[in-house]
Prior knowledge:
By secondary structure, the chain is α/β, with parallel strands linked by helices. The strands form 6 sheets. It has a 7-stranded mixed β-barrel with strand order 21-22-23-24-27-26-25, surrounded by 4 helices. Strands 7-6-3-4-5-20 form a 6-stranded mixed beta sheet. Strands 17-16-15-18-19 form a 5-stranded parallel beta sheet, with helices on one face. α2 packs across α3.
Amino acid sequence: MNITEKLIASHLVSGEMKAGEEIAIRIDQTLTQDSTGTMAYLQFEALGVPRVKTKRSVAYIDHNTLQAGFENADDHKYIQTVTKKHGIHFSRPGNGICHQVHLERFSRPGETLLGSDSHTPTCGAVGMLAIGAGGLDVAVAMGGGAYHVLMPKVTRVLLKGALPPMVAAKDIILAVLKKLSVKGGVGRVMEYQGEGVATLSVPERATITNMGAELGATTSVFPSDEVTKQFFEAQGRLADWSPLEADADARYDETVEIDLSALVPLAACPHSPDNVAPISELAGKKVNQVAIGSCTNSSLADMMKVAAILKGRTVAENVSLVIAPGSRQVLTMLAQNGALADMTAAGARILESACGPCIGMGQAPATDAVSLRTFNRNFFGRSGTKSAEVYLVSPETAAASAVTGVITDPRDLPAVDTIRPEKFLVNDNMVAAPAAEGEEVEVVRGPNIKPFPLGKALPDTVSGELLLKVGDNITTDHIMPSTAALLPFRSNIPHLAEYCLTPCDPDFPKRAQEKQGGFVLGGTNYGQGSSREHAALAPLYLGVKGVLAKSFARIHAANLVNNGILPLQLCDEADYEALEQGEALTIENARAQVEAAVAGTPVVLKTAAGREIRTQLNISDRQAAMLLAGGLLNATREQAK
Length: 641
Ligand code: MIC
Ligand code: SF4
């Protein structure tokens, strides 16, 4: 077996391990962050389970830390109290970005992790099966329920050779993205193999598994080897380590080769992580902002390289350089070893250990600015400035460009070393343990926490207007934007809904409400990007009944079904061209059609002119029950009756 198969086989609850079949797996650990967590815990409460049934569940506060009003702080308080009550550990604000802290302190080779954040696969760096999902799926897993997913194909990414100096792990994943595109990983686990693996430290592997999310992959995984062992030892957690590797005769569905020694520094150009070009082609372009951090590139080793490049130099006058170390462990170690002083002496602006500018919480670039970021997503508008050009680069490229003021190939500067600390500074005092007697904890709910919308049982006739037609690769940042102004409202769907799909059409929310809902039409890979369930809840609130698309991203499709919205994949792509915004669409005998869709029978929609549009639902029995009941929560309640 390969590593993926071993991880799945040891957690399989039901289903057949045949690519494309629905399987159910047992979840050992969960993580949530605050911007999806409030909703996930409201849903967990609705399930009525007194204490989590996982081995370890952790709630992080890392996204909404701006606190421009009371809303964020109220959410933090709610999450702190609800987790204390129900047996969940609580990583307090300032302790760091969920994926960085989870990797450092809680990851375990051989275990499964389900997180309400699309970058949960980060922990695949140590041989975990770590998957991102919607908040409701995570709530169910906390309650002891299995996680359902399609058995993935397994792609072997064969790493050959070793990286040249000043070429980074980021350049490896950018090279994979260039090769495979933002849809290249859909339905697959990317399993890293080959001689190059042993040359990469755990944080370098984590950069790669983290950004595997941008391939659309179910997850990415590395073996757990001697390098992993050393990382656990340095984290004072040797007891949590165990080896995991593929059998010598393991089989893979496909193989992609990357020769590390031939790689050069790369950048993902605006506005997609797969729009990759060599830095040499961009060199000399004037830069206005450099932002270093995020769950992709904020490890101690990354920060030490940045500090070494900045040491004794000054940030160029035309550049604003911001740095957010990924965790309090990283920040404290930088403070203790003097690297932080090298950064500030050069003129870096230090941000707290949180997501910050990566999710548009501050540091929006100036009009038409060129912003170089070590992050993982450069979707249109995500930085908070629509006219900004955001490039995704390695920490080396970012730091080199910050001091020169133009996009710079880091190989033009003297090489800096990568460190592998023998001992990390361990202090878990910012992780609050749950209460032994949860019943006694009072859950505090602020006024911004509104009830979430619930779907209704599917009627026999589903009809409505085609409210909006959009193109390929529509992201959840288009469907439910997350700017500093909107992120505080993650527990207030009525407010968020006013911004639903507005980057595509500012009038969409108004039109959807006037027409009492209807359908949306997308191109390929509709809903790529984040795991945010709000990209289903806001359309649900606006009355969207179904989304037609050429294809869907995995997590978003699951979120639609979980909330009772039909993800209808066009059988004939020509229908995409033919359908026009404003057309009336009807699904007759919808309930019977959804039941028949489990066996692969197309669901047929009719236009006003009587033309038939054939679509596939790609659902299991379990999902059909959800769609009929109007979502997962309704279906769970019906089963409990
Ligand atoms: C992101 O990077 O887009 C986020 C913000 O972390 C999201 C989660 C969210 O929208 O809250 C993700 O990746 O799932
Ligand atoms: Fe946070 Fe950005 Fe990572 Fe999402 S991608 S978890 S916003 S740092």
